[in-house]
Design goal:
The protein has 8 helices and 7 strands. By secondary structure, the protein is of the alpha/beta class. It has one domain: NAD(P)-binding Rossmann-like Domain (Rossmann fold, 3-Layer(aba) Sandwich). Strands 3-2-1-4-5-6-7 form a 7-stranded parallel beta sheet, sandwiched between helices. The radius of gyration is 17 Å and the shape is globular. It binds nicotinamide-adenine-dinucleotide. Nicotinamide-adenine-dinucleotide binds next to helix 1, helix 4 and helix 6. The site of nicotinamide-adenine-dinucleotide has 30 residues, from helix 1, helix 4 and helix 6.
Length: 253
C-alpha cells in the first residue's frame, strides 16, 4: 500500500524542481497526479515518464480561467481531487529601493495571487468530495527577512497567513479540507541555481549559502517532497493551518 494510494493530486510548477519531485513521490506512493505548469515542453516530457500515473495540463496560476478549466478537466479525467500542491513560484532579487512597482506586482501575482486562486478554486472543488489537503509552498523567506528580497519576502509571508485563513475557514465550515504551508531554505533546483549562477563568483556564493545552514548543506527536492507526501497523506489528518519548516536549522538560530 502506498501512503497516498488512490488519491488524486494536482501539482502546480510540476515541470521543475520541487513540484516535479513532489509529483514523482506522490505517484510512487499511489496517487494519480495532474502535473501542471506554464512550461509545457518539460511538463509533458516529465508526465510521460510516469506513465498512467500522471497527466499534464498547461496552467498559468495567475489566470483564474485556467484554474477553472484545469480543475474541471482534472475531475473529469480522474473523478476526484484530494491533494493540491501549490508549488509554482518565482524569485526576484531586489531590495525595496531597486524594485519597480511592475516587478513588485508581478512577483505577487505569481507567488500570492496564484496561490490564492489555487486555494479558492481548490476548496470549491474539494468540498464536493468531503476531504482534501492543500499544501502551499512558502519559504523560510516567509518567516525571516532578507535585505534584497522585498517582494519575495512579502509574497511568501502573505502565503503563510493566507494558508492559516484557508485552514480555519475550511475547519469552521466542516469541509474536511486541511491547508498547510511549507517553508524550505535553499533547495537544489533550477530556481536556486539561476540565483547562484547570477552571482559574480558562483562557487563562492554557493559556499556562502551552505555556511548559513546549521546542517551544512543545501536541501534536496526530495527533502521537501517527503514532507509534501506526509501532508498529503492520512498520516497528517490532525495537521492544519501550520507552517512546516524544512531548513537544516536556519530559523532555529
Ligand atoms: N529552491 C529553493 O531554494 C526554494 C526555497 C524555498 C521555497 N521555494 C519555493 O518552492 C516553489 C518551487 O520552487 P523551485 O525551486 O522548484 O522552482 P523552479 O523554478 O525549479 O520551478 C518553478 C516552476 O514554476 C513554474 N511557474 C512559474 N510561473 C508560473 C505560473 N505563472 N504558472 C504556472 N507555473 C509557473 C515554472 O515554469 C517552473 O517549472 C516556489 O514557490 C519557490 O518559491 C524554493
Amino acid at each position: 500500500m502506498g501512503r497516498v494510494d488512490g488519491k488524486i493530486a494536482l501539482v502546480t510548477g510540476a515541470a521543475s524542481g520541487i513540484g516535479l519531485q513532489a509529483s514523482l513521490r506522490l505517484a510512487e506512493e499511489g496517487a494519480r497526479v495532474m502535473m501542471t505548469d506554464i512550461n509545457v515542453e518539460n511538463g509533458k516530457k516529465e508526465a510521460e515518464k510516469l506513465g498512467r500515473n500522471a497527466e499534464f495540463l498547461k496552467l498559468d496560476i495567475t489566470l483564474e480561467e485556467d484554474w477553472i478549466s484545469v480543475l474541471r478537466e482534472t475531475v473529469k479525467r480522474f473523478q476526484s481531487l484530494d491533494i493540491l500542491v501549490n508549488s509554482a513560484g518565482m524569485v526576484l532579487i531586489a531590495d525595496v529601493e531597486q524594485i519597480s512597482l511592475e516587478d513588485w506586482r508581478h512577483v505577487h501575482a505569481v507567488n500570492l495571487d496564484g496561490t490564492f486562486l489555487g486555494c479558492k478554486h481548490g476548496v470549491r472543488v474539494m468540498k464536493e468530495f468531503g476531504a482534501g489537503s492543500i499544501i502551499n509552498l512558502s519559504s523560510v523567506s516567509g518567516l525571516i527577512g532578507g535585505f534584497n528580497l522585498a517582494a519575495y519576502n512579502s509574497s511568501k509571508g502573505a502565503v503563510r497567513m493566507l494558508t492559516k485563513s484557508v485552514a480555519l475557514h475550511c475547519a469552521r465550515s466542516g469541509y474536511g479540507i486541511r491547508c498547510n504551508s511549507i517553508h524550505p531554505t535553499f533547495i537544489e533546483t533550477p530556481m536556486l541555481d539561476s540565483m547562484i549562477q547570477d552571482a559574480p563568483d558562483p562557487e563562492k556564493a554557493r559556499q556562502t549559502l551552505i555556511r548559513q545552514v546549521p546542517l551544512k548543506r543545501i536541501g534536496t527536492t526530495d527533502d521537501v517532497a517527503k514532507m509534501i507526501v506526509y501532508l498529503a497523506s492520512d498520516e497528517s489528518t490532525f495537521v492544519t493551518g501550520t507552517e512546516m519548516v524544512i531548513d537544516g536549522g536556519v530559523v532555529a538560530q
